[in-house]
Amino acid sequence: MALLEIKNLAVTFGSNNGVVSAVRSLTLSIESGKTHCLVGESGCGKSVSSLAIMGLLSGSGKISGGSILFNGTNLPTLTESELRKIRGKDIAMIFQDPMTSLNPVFRVGDQVMESIMLHQKLDRTEARKKCIELFGLVKISDPEKRIDSYPHELSGGMRQRVMIAMALACEPKLLIADEPTTALDVTVQAQILELLKELQEKKGMAILFITHDLGVVAEIAHEVTVLYAGHVAESASAQELFQSPKHPYTKGLMNAVASLDSGNTRLSTIEGVVPEGTAVIVGCPFRDRCDRATDQCGVFPEESIDKNHRWYCWNPVG
Questions:
Q1: Lowest-pLDDT range of 49-63, 95-109, 123-137
Q2: Which 3 state secondary structure label does DSSP give 80?
Q3: C-alpha angle with apex 207: 206 to 210, nearest 5 degrees?
């Protein structure tokens, strides 16, 4: 059985312009020890999906349909008190910008130790020792000194390593990483990705990695789900997806990636924009931007399946 299994998840928000459908239908599963990448451009529902899993939807946000099964437990049915016992302990999350995730007025060590003392019931001396071990695990140099640093005294890469240490403090079964390398330069990004792979091998945890960067997907993913306008466009193993994409949107994303050996001086683009969250979508949500669209696309595509590769398109690529 999958560690995390999401079925037909829908998330909505109230607004002055009506109901915003941030996620319309998301289905995916993740097994222990595997990395599943959730891919799509800004506004497709990736980050909202992660917040729904964590039970951290803000304001008027609510899960309006579907289920999120973690170890067989449907998370949306739990009380806030029950969720707090899981959040940080069994499921942890790394956010995109560590500077906004860390409290600037507290030492980074104290912020990591707080989680350790809360979930593992250790005293401050034991928690400090555990924190130093974690800083060493995520390859923070001179951890005995860095534990007493404030966030502004660390580089962006070091701050992100602190966030990873905090997420790993209680050895979670599932780690959700919401674009954790976007704000970092390419060299540091590669180091963080390599670190996550090493930690996964050591700990056997599952990772839900949220990104819009297909280069990152190729580096880290076992499975990939492509999300468009809150709907799943395509889902497959990373190898299958890159070798044989079926949905025109997936193909468009791949064509938009710069390549040094392509010989082209111009990048391919996908014309148009993602539909507004308040839009009523009839048929395929991608049809207004798709050069393969036909009258049939006025009806939402049926699911097509080839082994573990599934897609929603009447006129697939290839």
A1: 95-109
A2: helix
A3: 160
| Residue 280: partners with Cβ closer than 8 Å, 6 or more residues away | none
| Residue 244: both structure tokens together | 């044989």
Which pLDDT score, from 0 to 100, does residue 181 have? 83
Q: How many angstroms separate the CA atoms of 310 and 303, rounded?
A: 7
Of the chain, the end-to-end C-alpha distance in Å amounts to: 32
Per-residue pLDDT band for 180 (boundaries 50, 70, 90) equals confident
Count of alpha carbons within 13 angstroms of residue 170, beta-carbon side: 24
Separation of alpha carbons 273 and 38, rounded Å: 19
Tokens of 255: 């064509």
Phi-psi region of 297 (alpha: psi -120 to 50; beta: other; left: phi over 0): alpha
pLDDT over 90 at 305, yes or no: yes
Is the CB of residue 304 less than 8 Å from the CB of residue 316? yes
Place of tokens 């395929």: 284
Could you identify the residue written with the tokens 């148009």?
272
**What is the spatial distance between Cα 226 and Cα 231, in angstroms, rounded to a whole number?**
9
Q: How sure is the predictor about 19, in pLDDT bands with cuts at 50, 70 and 90?
A: very high
Q: How far apart are CA 191 and CA 180, in angstroms?
A: 12
| Token output for 148 | 């007493």
**pLDDT for res 265:** 61
DSSP, collapsed to helix, strand or coil, labels residue 128 as helix
Count CA within 13 A, CB hemisphere, residue 195.
25
- The C-alpha atoms of residue 80 and residue 82 are separated, in whole angstroms, by 5
- Nearest CA to 88 among 48, 121, 57, 116? 116
At residue 182, the 3 state secondary structure works out as: coil
Q: CA 304, CA 195: separation in Å to the nearest integer?
A: 36
Lookup result for tokens 């989680």: 115
